[in-house]
Write a structure and sequence with these properties.
The complex is a heterodimer of chains A (240) and B (385).
Chain A: H1 2-21, H2 26-37, E1 42-51, E2 57-68, E3 71-78, E4 86-90, E5 93-98, E6 103-107, H3 120-124, H4 128-131, E7 132-139, E8 143-150, E9 159-165, E10 171-177, E11 183-195, E12 198-208, E13 214-223
Antiparallel strand pairs in A: 1-2, 1-13, 2-3, 3-4, 4-5, 5-6, 7-8, 8-9, 9-10, 10-11, 11-12, 12-13
Chain B: E1 33-48, E2 53-70, E3 75-87, E4 90-105, E5 109-116, E6 148-157, E7 160-167, E8 186-195, E9 198-207, E10 210-221, E11 224-233, E12 247-256, E13 262-271, H1 277-289, E14 307-318, E15 322-331, E16 337-346, E17 351-360, E18 375-384
Antiparallel strand pairs in B: 1-2, 1-18, 2-3, 3-4, 4-5, 5-6, 6-7, 7-8, 8-9, 9-10, 10-11, 11-12, 12-13, 13-14, 14-15, 15-16, 16-17, 17-18
Classes of the chains: A alpha+beta (240), B mainly beta (385).
Chain lengths: 240, 385
């Protein structure tokens, strides 16, 4: 009887140890974050506040409509002098509509978004798993630290490091590096909220480590209940 | 607060904030309605060495309102108008820039009736491939949104489109409405296809009793945008010879967009319906004999001869307060050039103050003999509601 009990206890402790040592599926962790930061079929109103080292503050409000990671549309609502400007992203291609001259202009991907520290890729195209290879760098009692190394030459950054809260699965902080390993930017996440079926940070602060300037993004509204027509993602429909 | 760059310590995020519940009081536009409105004022000083005159005009003013309504049932109406006030001579004029109805069927078929502007050609100022929507403004000057009266049916999909356009009126009144004696202008077809990182556009049409064709391509290679345009037009006429001939114009350009705020663009433009050396000498004779002040300023054209180089540099949001635009148009056949520079101060969310300076080369017997001024300085203020 005593021997059976000891064997049973040994079996349970082995299973527990095995469970504790089971490596985290970093790809699944990153996929979940990516899915929440760039969900399919949503409409959102985001505010951007760019704060400069001289104290200058510039604010923008943009309505985004997204079908998936390759189909995104943005309409500037504020400031008033930018009202009516549109941006459209189809895959790697971006266009902007300028209402003042009634014309469509093709733009490169790496431009900063609205002159701030978020790049267009940070806002309109979060497809990390397609462009980066995730790898667990360290596991702490509260967080997973995941390195995302570029696997395609068109990735905006050579490497990103992502801190993830183990309990909630939400991102806590992210750092962006160039090919020399120089830290370029870091993003802080906060104010986790539920929007429809997803839960995600509603407040992001991106700090440019080089220029010491920062930009803030707040999600004012996010809806999944409105069907976005395919025609929204057509170059010819910009401005219409 | 931040994790160290070279270690793997736990990091902290932002402190949680309670979501703000924004109460939007007061009058709001109904759902589906978008608007854009502004007030613009301008004063100009011009100087001309020939005749030794200098004049200051203004303030000219402009009030503009654009309204659009998109219904949930896939139709939309839109109107875009301006009221212009000119100080010298005193004149007030209402102008309809755009207006009409669009209806979309099955999400891919669109019908539009009204006055509309839709320019996609990549050229900065000149667009040889776009025979429908001209751009006369130099970069950074006042808005240009004049549409064309048309009925359009389009097949639109992400990355490709095809449209057929009929244009019933060949002339318009100053108000932007069709001229009472307007004749049938013609028709056009336009196609767009996105091939990987490149856009391809082709258009053809029969307008004003002449055939027009246009081809353009543009693409992004890293931080570089490269583009080319070609246009053929039976309507194009020589500057001094009135007969109709088939004109050809081409444009090659590239723009570097790799800097955060700055961009630099270069273009080479060539056109066959232009003045050659002999024609320029004939014109110079006319200019010399003309009494001072009898040459109409609108006779002047910035692109008078065959070939030009255009270099443009712009900076947007310097210190989040300043926009700069500098453009040089240099003739590749003589020493004539046009230099346009403009600065904008973004005063606040609503107001922009602009200062522009345009200079033209002074060489006699060169193409800018008809120039209305040698130097022009203008200041403007815009308030967007």
């Amino acid at each position: 009887m005593q021997r059976t009990l000891l064997s049973f206890l040994f079996l349970i402790s082995s299973c527990t140890l095995q469970a504790a040592e089971k490596p985290v599926d970093v790809r699944a962790v990153v996929a979940k974050i990516e899915g929440n930061l760039a969900p399919k079929g949503y409409q959102a109103i985001n505010s951007f506040v760019n704060t400069r080292i001289d104290g200058t503050i510039v604010s923008y409000e943009v309505r985004f409509q997204s079908k998936d990671v390759d189909h995104n549309h943005g309409l500037f609502l504020k400031p008033e002098r930018e009202k009516g400007r549109e941006i459209l992203r189809l895959g790697d291609n971006m266009w902007t509509w300028m209402p003042s001259v009634g014309r469509v202009v093709r733009v490169a991907d790496r431009d900063s978004f609205a002159g701030g520290d978020f790049s267009n890729a940070d806002i309109l195209r979060i497809d990390w798993l397609n462009r980066y290879e995730p790898e667990l760098a360290k596991e702490t009692p509260k967080q997973w630290i995941i390195d995302l190394k570029a696997k395609t030459p068109d990735a905006p950054y050579a490497k990103m490091r992502l801190w993830v809260d183990r309990e909630s699965g939400q991102p806590v902080q992210q750092q962006y590096y160039d090919s020399n390993g120089t830290l370029l930017k870091r993003c802080l996440y906060g104010s986790v909220q539920k929007f429809g079926l997803i839960t995600r940070p509603a407040h992001l602060v991106m700090e440019n480590v080089i220029t010491k300037q920062k930009s803030e993004l707040k999600i004012l509204e996010m809806r999944f209940d409105q069907a976005i027509p395919e025609s929204r993602f057509v170059v010819d429909n910009l401005g219409k | 607060m931040f994790a160290q760059d070279d270690d793997l310590n736990e990091a902290q995020g932002l402190p949680d904030e309670k979501p703000k519940v924004e109460t939007k009081d007061g009058w709001r536009l109904p759902d589906g309605v978008t608007e854009r409105a502004y007030l613009w004022m301008n004063a100009t000083s011009e100087k001309r060495a020939r005749g030794g005159w200098e004049r200051v005009t203004g303030p000219d003013a402009e009030a503009s309102l654009s309204l659009a309504y998109k219904s949930p049932s896939n139709w939309q109406s839109f109107i875009d108008g301006r009221i212009l006030h000119s100080a010298d001579p005193v004149d007030n004029q209402g102008v309809l820039e755009q207006g009409g109805f669009r209806a979309t069927f099955r999400d891919t078929l669109q019908l539009m009736i009204g006055k509309e502007r839709s320019r996609k050609a990549p050229g900065l100022i000149l667009a040889p491939s776009d025979f429908l929507y001209a751009q006369e403004n130099l970069p950074g000057q006042r808005e240009q949104r004049t549409g064309l009266w048309q009925a359009r049916i389009s097949w639109l999909e992400s990355g490709r489109s095809l449209e057929a356009i009929v244009l019933p009126f060949d002339t318009m009144q100053d108000s932007g409405l069709p001229d009472r004696e307007a004749r049938w202008k013609g028709w056009a077809v336009r196609g767009f296809y996105q091939l990987s990182n490149f856009d391809l556009q082709a258009s053809a049409g029969h307008l004003n009793d002449g055939w027009h064709e246009g081809l353009s391509t543009q693409g992004i290679l890293g931080a570089w945008k490269i583009y080319a345009e070609a246009g053929w037009s039976e309507e194009a006429r020589s500057i001094v010879r009135p007969q109709t001939e088939k004109g050809r114009s081409t444009l090659f350009g590239t723009e570097y967009q790799g800097w955060d705020k700055w961009s630099l663009r270069g273009e080479v433009f060539y056109q066959t319906p232009a003045a050659d050396r002999q024609e320029l000498n004939q014109l110079w004779t006319v200019v010399q004999r003309a009494p001072p002040g009898t040459l109409h300023p609108q006779a002047w054209k910035p692109f008078f001869r065959h070939s030009y180089g255009i270099v443009s540099c712009s900076a947007l949001g310097l210190d989040d307060r300043i926009n700069l635009f500098m453009t040089v148009i240099r003739s590749l056949e003589d020493r004539a050039f046009l230099f346009n520079q403009r600065g904008e101060w973004l005063l606040d969310d609503h107001q922009v103050i602009g200062l522009a300076w345009v200079g033209l080369s002074e060489g006699d017997r060169q193409q800018y003999a008809l120039r209305p001024f040698d130097r022009q300085v203008s200041v403007d203020w815009k308030f967007t509601f």
